[in-house]
Each structure stands twice: as structure tokens, then as C-alpha cells.
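Your task
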Amino acid sequence: MQMLKRWSKSSSAQSIGLVKVISLPVTTASISSMNELAQLSLPLGSIVGIALCFVWSGFVRSGLGFGGAALSLPIFLQIVEAPLVFLPALAWQLLFFSSLTIATRLHNVNWRFLAKLSLQLAIPFGAGLFGLLSLPPNILAAIVYTTTFMFGMAYVANRMLTGGNQIVNAVSLGLGAYVSGIALIGAALIVAASSHRLPSAQVRDTFFMLWIVMVISKLSALKAADIDLQWQLSLLTLPLVGIGHFFGLKLHSRIVSGDRAGFNRLIGAGLCLVSFLGLYSVIRSY
């Protein structure tokens, strides 16, 4: 048990480091609890900004099926540096809305694909989850976002990296899984390297099931490290995420009703947006 706690704390330290690299925080003091956040007496503009970030995270997650954390965490942390407040709250909300979305759509999950992919991701995800490896956060973030951008451009051009690029796909999946184990921001890379093997109508539901498993594992690791899971903040902002989730569902319906080439271009645009913002933040961190 002591070893598990030590591994979990190591992973949490890596998570904070990686999340800080992809952010441009306004505040200088790191906030680790909701009470500390409440005591900051944030201006109205910052409060509205945080609220809109929760709406945005729900919209992106249900609309694209990925990117809720990756596209909202950098913005959250530009307002206030509180990774241990926002990351658990986002994890709870991902768990709730992903479960809600696929509760009546389990038939649309590609279970065979999911089982095979889970086996590929298990070891690198576990390594990130328990902090078994230690890589410089800025280097790790740069690699992840550069690779994701390359995949995104391939999707936009409707030229998937398949067949002869199996090694590239395998390495990308491993890297995405490792980063997801640390801070749940590797989803875009996992989607980029594998979603071309799924019918467009099954992409979101199948990956939602994968995110559920990953989030449960991450929350368990945070709990083992005695980190507040921020369920109060998650409940408080649930209606905001619900608004974004509702409009994201409408976006997703329009996306999957089009042809596969159009779907790929939209997915690629989302991947490029995630990676561009991430790379910009990494460059600014130097």
C-alpha cells in the first residue's frame, strides 16, 4: 500500500508539471483546493471565464468525443493555476457525461476494437498512472502535440497513417496512453492514431467507453495519493457542463450525418486545434 501511494504521488507530481507546461497561468501561487480557490476573491471576469470553460469542455467532449480536458485545461490555468482543483473535477464530469451518453448506446460500441486497443494501451497507461517513468514535462508535451498535429494534418488531407505506418501508430498510441495516465490529455493522440479503423458513427461511443475506464483508474490513483477529488466543484459546475454537452450532441449528430471525408476533416481540425494551442503554450513556457 505504501508503494502504491508513493507511485501515485509521483504520478501526481508529474501531472502537475505536465499541466503547468501546457498552461499560461495568470496567478503565481498554485492552488490545491476549492477552499483556497474561493478565498482568492476572483474578479467577475475570471469567474465568468471559469464558467465558460466548463461549458466549453462539455461541448468539445460530446461534439468530437475527445479533447474536453486537453482543450479546456490550458484555458482554466490561464485564469488561475489550480491543476489539482480542475483536473479531478473534469475527470468526474467526463465520467458522468460519457456514461450518460453511452448508457443507451452500448450496442454502438465496437467491443472487439475496444478490447484490442485496451491491451495495446494498458502497459504505457499504467506506467503514466503510477509514475513509473520520469520525462521532462516540456519535452513530453512537445512530442505529444507535434505528433498529434501531424496526425491532424493527415486527417484534414484525408490521408490516414495506416498500413506501412503501423510502427508510427503503435508508438503514438503508447505515448498517448502514457500521457493520459499522467494527466488525461493524451486522448487526442489516441484518437488520431486509431480512429480511422472505426466507422464514423462508432468513434465517439467506443472511445467514451475507453475514457470511462481511464478516468476511473486516474481518480483511484489520485485518491491513493490523498488528493482531494473535488466532487463538490464537479457537482456545482455540472449544469454548466450539461449546457455544453447538449449543444455538443447536436454538433456530433451533424458531423456523423455527413460523409467520411468530411468527418475526417472535422476530426483533423479538432486535433490540429488541440495541438496548436498546446505547442503555443509549450513555446511560451520557455
Notes: Residues 2-285 form one domain.
